[in-house]
Amino acid sequence: MNADPIQVTRLDCGLTVVTETMDRVETVSLGAYVASGTRNEDAAQNGVSHFLEHMAFKGTERRSAAQIAEAVENVGGHINAYTAREQTAYYVKLLKEDLELGADIIGDILTHSVFAPEEVERERGVILQEIGQANDTPDDIIFDHFQETAYPNQPMGRPVLGTEAIIRGMKGADIQAYMRAHYAASNVVVAAAGALEHERVVELVRQHFADLPADAPRPVQPGRYAGGEFREERELDQVHVVLGFPSVGYSDPDYYPVLLLSGLLGGGMSSRLFQEIREKRGLVYSVYSFTAPFVETGLFGIYAGTGEAEAAELVPATLEELHRVQLDANQEELNRARAQVKASLLMSMESTGSRCEQLSRQIQIFGRIIPTAETVARLEAVSVADIRRAAARIFRGVPTLAALGPAQSVPSLSTITERLAA
């Protein structure tokens, strides 16, 4: 008997099954993680990945939309999905005795969805409402503007939801064609975690995912960072600002230094940005930094929401922190950032759903499972010198600025670039 709680089986069709046995839980999570998202779309079909994710729950050859929901909720389970730039996921969480039902449901929606015309029209209206809601939420839509400015005129920069014009014109046949082209068995990882037996999961996947197409998926277009400035004047109480830079992908040697740099700079209430911008200067309610790694590229960003009068001081104060961290990042704050990242990692391992997502991404990005001890060791190996070097690498790149609201006082991109170079 294999003592390793994590096991991987690659089926002849190309699909990968990865499981983790968690002895002290009574539930199981199972998901199908497709290595296809917004960056796989052509310009004319932007939003099709997200539209497809919605349609997967709207009926199969054996179940109506209501029957899909009822089958899971009748046993107290939970079913959901999400679309990202590099992945689309469909997952359930159930009691351990209902594992077969979960595999049946997820397999059914991925292989036998019917895309009934009336359901396509109904869901089109739902997605248009979702786009409208995003446009009315400035601290949400600002990130779409930021992404598009960083990666202009290419799949990596397009919004996950698509545009209203494209969604209005999208047909059920377009969605089905996209699914056939990208939902190939070799592009799918089925991950399960919880109270389970690996061989039983493999058996269920063979049974319920057998009809996935075997064609090889098309290669994706590499992301080409450009940077630039987006600015939209809008009557709002706050101006929402995202300042960002080209960063690293998952496999870059600086991945862990950059991750810890983000935590040190803007990852919590003790971070530099929070202490300086909010606590000392009182310029904002919310300010934080973030990393957005992708397979071969990435972004580092800082978000803040501030009043019109405070906007002129906000950006220079932020730039000063970006300059300072390259010179005087210290061991105490590195230790604090490292503790936060390690705690987040270890806490996430207590969730069956989080474990499924982590396992699937590791298989799709690295082709193997990354042991937790290896991740912790890489975090522990990051030094203060690594943090300063990573900061110099990131903050000397071409910036991207996105500003939405009463943004007249936000300095121009050229001014920001000059100050960064000084």
Describe it for me?
The chain has 422 residues and is an alpha+beta fold. The chain is 46% helix and 19% strand. It contains 16 helices and 11 strands. Strand 9 and strand 10 form a beta hairpin. Helix 9 crosses helix 15 and helix 12 packs antiparallel against helix 14.
Give me a quick take on this structure.
The chain is 46% helix and 19% strand. The protein contains 16 helices and 11 strands.
Secondary structure elements and pairings:
Blueprint: E1 6-10, E2 16-21, E3 27-34, H1 48-55, H2 65-73, E4 78-83, E5 88-95, H3 99-111, H4 117-135, H5 138-150, H6 164-169, H7 172-182, E6 188-194, H8 198-208, E7 228-233, E8 238-246, H9 255-266, H10 272-280, E9 284-293, E10 298-307, H11 311-328, H12 331-348, H13 352-366, H14 372-381, H15 384-395, E11 400-405, H16 413-421
Parallel strand pairs: 2-6, 7-11
Antiparallel strand pairs: 1-2, 3-5, 3-6, 4-5, 8-10, 8-11, 9-10
Helix pairs in contact: 1-7, 3-8, 9-12, 9-15, 10-11, 11-15, 12-14
